[in-house]
Every structure is written in structure tokens, then in C-alpha cells.
From TrEMBL:
It comes from the Eukaryota. It holds the Pfam family Sulfotransfer_4. The chain crosses the membrane at residues 130-148, 235-254. This is NAD dependent epimerase/dehydratase. Keywords: Membrane, Transmembrane, Transmembrane helix.
């Protein structure tokens, strides 16, 4: 949250970074920093899988549903195709659900580095609890169900739960999820490709990891809590407006349907 979906660059754009940090670890800040350093668009999977093009949303839902069920060689090739199709034209990926799919993305882009944004576990959990206090509410999918693209939100949440169960053994993000997630990255990623990074450290360590010069611009900061809350209330507002519109249509159809039924009955009696 806090920024819009990005458009892919031209075909053949080199994919260089798998952003494998858990949500609320500075992923949106790293997104903007990588866009500057690598001079190309970053595929923020949280944003693209919920607010990208209709095709991107469908591809992400397909990938999220297919990965836990990939038992055969052809299943794995289908996953390779979905990953390459989604990430064509991007220089990096970011956030969840992509952060849960590091091995699958690395299989398609073996030259990429895996960059895990990290932070103090206690402060991360406070931030995650704040986000869950409104994004995890039971009524949000109901409120936005009439919005274009938002109808996939309920399916997205169910498939994210399935991914969490399949990968980590629990169906929601918990206090220990950050540690479990980072330990998993250490197990599945070759050490020479795995880097941990705190966005509070700025350009220096990041540029050293990517072997690029430090740019002559301030280090970005993105997605503060106020921005996240603002996006939430925008969704709530337009969701309520869509419900008013839908109920008005239902009332109109019911009212005139009842009148036509009454008139038809009256004509029969005559």
C-alpha cells in the first residue's frame, strides 16, 4: 500500500533482484530505491496481484493456487511460465506473495540476488498488527466486493493462507513469522546469493550489494502508516459508494418488477 502498480519495461529488461523481505520491513522503500539504482520498474507483488491489470491479477491467483500443488515436471514448468510471464520487463520483485516464492523465482532467474529486508522483530510485529487491524478485518472483502478488480480480494486472501500453511505451517502472519520466514530464506538460498538489508542503513550497504555507485539523490522513504490508512479509507469510501449504487439498482428492479406484476394481475382480474 502507499503506491500504485508499475508498468513493465521493454521485453528483455534484465531481472536482477528477488526482494524476499516480509511485508512491513521497508519493502516499499526498497522498491523505490531499486527503481532508482537499477533504472527500471519493480514488480511489487502485493500491489500488482491486487491492483494491477486484470491479467496480472489472474496470473497471480493462478500462481498462488498452483505452487502448493506442483507435484509433476509439467506442473513445475507451468509455474516457471507463470513466473516469467509476470516478471517480464521488471528489474526486481518485492513483497508478498512473491516473498513466499523465492525458490520458484530463483529457478527462473538463477542469476538474480535475493535481498531480504529486515528489522527488529518487536517493531515489525507492532507495524504488522497495525496493518492487520484494518486490512485483516472480516468486513473489508464484503465492502469492496462490487469494486472493479476487488472481487478477487477474497480469493487472494484464501490463497495466501494456503501458501502460508504450505510453506510455514500456519495460516496467518504471526509474531514469529518474520523469524520463520528469514530462517527459510537461509535454508533455500545459496549463501553467496543471499543478502539481508535494513533500509535504515541507506544507500551504502545496498549499493555495495548490487555493485552500483551511490546515486546523488536522497534515500527514499515510502509507505508510512498514514499513507496505508489513507489507502484503506479510499477503498472503504468507494466500496460504500458501490454498495449504494448496487442497492439503488436492486430497489429499482424490485419496485418496477412489483408494479409490472401487480398490473399483470389486475389485467387478469379484469
Amino acid at each position: 500500500m502507499g503506491q500504485g502498480p508499475s508498468l513493465p519495461g521493454p521485453p528483455g529488461t534484465k531481472f536482477r533482484v528477488i526482494g524476499a523481505g516480509m511485508s512491513r520491513t521497508g519493502t516499499k522503500t526498497l522498491n523505490e530505491a531499486l527503481t532508482i539504482l537499477l533504472n527500471g520498474p519493480v514488480h511489487d507483488s502485493g500491489i500488482q496481484s491486487l491492483g494491477g491489470t486484470v491479467r496480472q491479477i489472474r496470473l497471480w491467483l493462478g500462481l498462488m493456487g498452483a505452487v502448493p500443488k506442483a507435484y509433476t515436471f509439467s506442473d513445475r514448468k507451468k509455474i516457471d511460465w507463470l513466473v516469467s510471464d509476470l516478471l517480464e520487463g521488471y528489474v526486481a520483485t518485492m513483497d508478498c506473495p512473491a516473498a513466499l516464492l523465492t525458490p520458484e523465482i530463483l529457478a527462473v532467474y538463477p542469476e538474480a540476488v535475493v535481498l531480504v529486508t529486515t528489522r527488529d522483530e518487536a517493531s515489525w510485529w507492532r507495524s504488522m498488527e497495525y496493518m492487520n487491524s484494518f486490512m485483516g478485518t472480516y468486513y473489508l472483502p464484503l465492502v469492496v466486493m462490487w469494486l472493479w478488480k476487488a472481487q478477487a480480494y477474497g480469493k487472494w486472501r484464501r490463497r495466501l493462507k494456503q501458501l502460508l500453511i504450505w510453506r510455514y505451517g500456519h495460516d496467518h502472519i504471526r509474531r514469529d513469522t518474520l523469524r520463520v520466514h528469514e530462517d527459510y530464506q537461509r535454508r533455500v538460498v545459496p549463501p553467496e546469493k543471499l543478502f539481508f538489508y535494513d533500509v535504515k542503513d541507506g544507500w551504502g550497504p545496498l549499493c555495495k550489494i548490487l555493485d552500483v555507485p551511490v546515486p546523488d539523490v536522497p534515500f527514499p522513504h515510502n509507505n508510512d502508516k498514514a499513507a496505508a490508512r489513507r489507502i484503506y479509507w479510499q477503498h472503504m469510501f468507494w466500496g460504500i459508494v458501490s454498495w449504494v449504487f448496487a442497492l439503488a439498482i436492486f430497489y429499482y428492479l424490485f419496485y418496477y418488477g412489483a408494479r409490472l406484476f401487480h398490473q399483470a394481475g389486475h389485467c387478469v382480474e379484469v
